[in-house]
Design brief:
The structure is a homodimer. With about 250 residues, chain A is of the alpha/beta class. In chain A, about 40% of the residues lie in helices and about 20% in strands. In chain A, the strands form three sheets. Chain A has a three-stranded antiparallel beta sheet, with helices on one face. A two-stranded parallel ribbon of chain A has the order 1-2. The first copy, chain A, has a two-stranded parallel ribbon with strand order 4-5.
Chain lengths: ~250, ~250
């Protein structure tokens, strides 16, 4: 979706090392925004992105026009209902359907052997892995770790929309996730107690408004009541009008 | 879906003439049946179908097991909502979603250059053409004319489920379509009047129960009020517990 940052560069570097030819799509997908103004204000700077892609060894920057990908007579929808129902899907009803439809189209047009995604959008990656498996797409999906600012905030194009005060306060997401991880390390297994701990940390940061925190099975994204094996903590927080997400996998 | 008849053979013959390698899928798709008993009683005779495919020059008969195509953890759905809403879609709510999902999977597995379908399932073909275009499938879709019995009844695997009396009465579908065509030839353009004429013919056949008759734009399948250009007449009729469909394109 452009507005390239270190998260994207880490995917480009990895892909460049592993593949002969690297295609990067640059397309702000109108179908995955529920609110038109969120689509309108999504950061765009194609000239900057082109230069950055070139300097990171991208062989082809695929920048289709919106009408080429979403023509007025489009009528096909790809959805992954069970995986999309909760968490981001609950807050953004048609979001993952928009992602799944467009990613299917991009896969069909580009026909990659390997596709690289960032773990930051954990549920999105889960949805894409499921659809690639279900629709027999002949490709491998590689998930790269979330890249963070020095203070722990996950890199995101949306970060630049934060006011300086909200940007400073946004470190609370990673602090809360880290605290939960430490609690599990310390022996706490009850997810209701862990959730309360996270909520308490969020509450102390008055600029932040907790949307959800969930302890889930890393494959199905169904909530678990006890941390017994590999578990993903999913977190969404509103800072003013900006919604930020983050996650942490604990073992 | 097997139970091969002359309609299928006409597709096989055409494909054999036009292509180097001919794959035929034989898979009774559970997702496209709304009623479990309709799925259960759908005619199946794999041994007979295998012999028939071989004698018609089929290079590969693709007969996946249900669990291979519809595993228990499948969660991806392909749908074409606008084209699927009316007519067969109205009578069979999840039918076209089941068709679109499975055809997408078969296309991805087989990767055909050309795919052959029969015009008898007119709306199904429209849905598949739309999804192939929308999802950028790299293939050509060829639609072959409906093959009919001598008395006009469109060949269908479901015909063998009719009682002898219902089978005899089932000629009413083609008679009604033909009568509508003749009325248009005779100068009638008003689709409400044409619909009434069709309904009247159906009413005279007491074994037949009209589900719908529609005069539609051949691409969008939206109903038209006047026959001004190319128009498709879509017809669905119940004979006892068996539903039959037919259609006729008029110019």
């Amino acid at each position: 979706m452009g507005a390239f940052h270190e998260g994207h560069f880490s995917l480009m570097r990895k892909a460049n090392r592993e593949c002969d030819y690297l295609v990067v799509s640059l397309f702000v997908n109108p179908l995955q925004f529920d609110i038109a103004c969120d689509f309108d204000r999504y950061p765009r700077d194609t000239v900057r992105d082109q230069a950055l892609a070139e300097s990171h060894g991208v062989d082809l920057l695929f920048t289709p026009a919106p009408y080429e990908i979403v023509p007025s007579d489009i009528d096909t929808v790809v959805s992954v209902p069970s995986l999309s129902r909760r968490w981001e899907g609950a807050s953004r009803p048609d979001h993952f359907q928009g992602v799944a439809t467009i990613v299917t189209k991009l896969f069909q047009i580009v026909r990659p052997d390997v596709a690289y995604f960032g773990q930051k959008d954990y549920q999105q990656v889960a949805v894409i892995q499921q659809l690639a498996r279900d629709l027999h797409f002949d490709l491998k999906i590689r998930v790269m770790p979330t890249i963070r600012e020095k203070d722990g905030l996950a890199k995101s194009s949306r970060n630049q929309l934060l006011s300086p005060d909200d940007r400073a306060a946004a470190t609370v997401l990673y602090r809360a996730l880290h605290h939960a991880k430490q609690s599990v390390k310390g022996g706490e297994r009850d997810c209701r107690i862990l959730q309360k701990k996270v909520a308490l940390i969020l509450k102390k940061e008055r600029r932040a408004d907790l949307d959800y925190v969930a302890f889930c099975d890393p494959k199905t994204l169904e909530p678990v009541s006890l941390v017994t094996g590999k578990t993903v903590i999913l977190l969404a927080v509103r800072m003013g009008s900006i919604r930020l997400i983050d996650n942490l996998v604990i073992r």
